[in-house]
Amino acid sequence: MPISWKPEPVMSDIMTVKDEWIDYNGHLNMAYYNVLLDQACDHVFGMLGLGPNYVKERNASFFTAEAHVCYVRELSAGMPVKVGLQLVDFDEKRAHFYEELYHAEEGWLSATSEQLCLHVDMGARKVAPWPEDILANIQSLADAQSSLPRPERAGRHIEIKKKA
């Protein structure tokens, strides 16, 4: 039976920026933004039925094919953070997610990430269709979030705009 979702981004638990993640510039190293965002994504994928046992039980998994991170505001050691995740789109083999990383107490945006995940048959190491039950869970999330606007930062690309 598909999960019942709220019509809002799925929020992660509160996480804390660790001292050892701070770089020589005195702020959170860019790699650890991805750790926080990935942990939040794993939480939602677990809710969809794609947790750690999924690989063992079905010999399938999901891989990130593309990701785009925007660093909006610095984070420092000890800061509490949380991530909101929104499903932007999906099809029979792929899911496009968007995440926003926030300071958990003050509410300001620190970073955004969007990624395209592929469902993979681990035996063949090839992209494969989602199983029916997982697809039903993804559809349930899409239905719940259907009234949400497309995130403003979704679909961005990198370029240096030249002056005319």
Report on the structure:
By secondary structure, the chain is an alpha+beta fold. Helices cover 23% and strands 32% of the residues. Strands 1, 2, 3, 4, 5, 6 and 7 form a 7-stranded antiparallel beta sheet that branches. It starts with 9 loop residues before the first strand and ends in a 20-residue tail after the last helix. 25% of the residues are buried. The mean pLDDT is 95.
Give a quick rundown of the structure.
With 164 residues, this protein is of the alpha+beta class. Helix content is 23%, strand content 32%.
Largest sheet: 7 strands, antiparallel
In N-to-C order, the SSE pattern is: EEHHEEEEEH
Report the strand count: 7
Mean pLDDT: 95
Q: Tally the helices: what do you get?
A: 3
Q: What form results from the Cα inertia axes? A: globular
Share in helix: 10-25%
Radius of gyration: 17 Å
Give the terminus-to-terminus CA distance. Answer: 56 Å
**Percentage beta strand:** 25-35%
Topology:
Layout: E1 10-11, E2 15-16, H1 30-47, H2 52-58, E3 60-71, E4 80-90, E5 94-103, E6 109-121, E7 126-127, H3 132-144
Antiparallel strand pairs: 1-4, 2-4, 3-6, 4-5, 5-6, 6-7
Question: Which key features would you list for this structure?
Answer:
164 residues, alpha+beta, 7-stranded antiparallel β-sheet, 32% strand
